[in-house]
Each structure stands twice: as structure tokens, then as C-alpha cells.
Specification:
Low-confidence stretches: none
Largest sheet: 4 strands, antiparallel
Structural class: alpha+beta
Mean pLDDT: 83
Distance between the termini: 20 Å
Radius of gyration: 15 Å
Number of strands: 4
Number of helices: 6
Strand order of the largest sheet: 1-4-2-3
Length: 147
């Protein structure tokens, strides 16, 4: 995925298009190594416990997903959403990285960014390829949290 990273910090819905596509949510390891934060320490401990290898580019890939609307999925669901829609928040809380959904939101805003690959999804064949693209990104990049 060669697109530029977009930080969640300061993100507004108007910054995002309504494209369909596959996305990755990541944290740069410099944040983990250089910032004195209990949540980052907990993430580092969790990564060590599962034997996660940090990528050569220094990114820690947390989550991979697909969406038919980038604005809704990344802003309304992942950043502003609740347990029903924000799977990354659920993973951060359930794995002990942060204590609450509110803490998870702040963690995402402070440390996470995303990359997005727009894909067409009008036909049934394109929708099938869309699902395959998400699966292939998960297989190739091995995110920390998979649902």
C-alpha cells in the first residue's frame, strides 16, 4: 500500500472522501520507543508477548479492513464509534493496552495513522475482488489485530 499516511489527530470528516477501498491502521514504532506513555508500554509488552516483528519501515500494522465509505468507516466508526462499530478500539481494550473505549479513542488520535487504497465495487465481481484484496493485505502484512 503506497499511499501516504493520514494521521487521526486533527482528522475531520470533511478531510475524507466517500471512496470504497481497503485500509490499514498503523502506528510508527518511534512513538512506541520514544514516548513515555503507559498505553505505549502496554502495546510494546503485548507485541513482545505475541512475538510480533516490527516492519522494516518502522511501522507496526495494527488493523486491516475494507469499507464502502472511507469517511464513515475511518472517522465515524473507528475514531468516533462504539463497541458495535470500532473493532480496533475493542482490540485495544480487550488486550489490555488501554482501559476504556475513551482511552482507545485518545490512543488512536495521538499515535495512529492510516493508509487507504481506493477500489471500485459496483459489480458483483468487483465486490468479490474487493474482499479478496482485504484478505490479501491481511495475509501479506500480518496486522497485530485480526478479526
Amino acid at each position: 500500500m503506497n499511499s501516504n499516511s493520514v494521521c487521526f489527530k486533527g482528522l475531520k470528516p470533511s478531510h475524507l472522501t466517500e471512496d470504497a477501498g481497503v485500509y490499514v491502521i498503523l502506528i510508527h514504532t518511534q512513538s512506541i520507543l520514544n514516548d513515555n506513555d503507559d498505553a505505549l508500554d502496554a502495546l510494546n509488552d503485548y507485541l513482545s508477548s505475541i512475538g510480533y516483528e516490527i516492519g522494516a519501515n518502522g511501522d507496526c500494522l495494527l488493523y486491516v479492513g475494507r469499507t464502502i465509505n472511507k469517511r464513515v468507516r475511518l472517522y465515524q466508526n473507528h475514531l468516533q464509534g462504539t463497541k458495535a462499530t470500532a473493532r480496533l478500539k475493542i482490540a485495544l481494550v480487550s488486550n489490555g493496552i488501554v482501559a476504556t473505549e475513551s482511552d482507545a479513542k485518545e490512543f488512536i488520535k495521538q499515535y495512529c495513522s492510516f493508509k487507504f487504497l481506493a477500489l471500485p465495487t459496483q459489480t458483483v465481481k468487483e465486490q468479490y475482488n474487493f474482499k479478496l484484496a482485504e484478505h490479501q493485505v491481511k495475509v501479506d502484512l500480518e496486522p497485530v489485530f485480526i478479526d
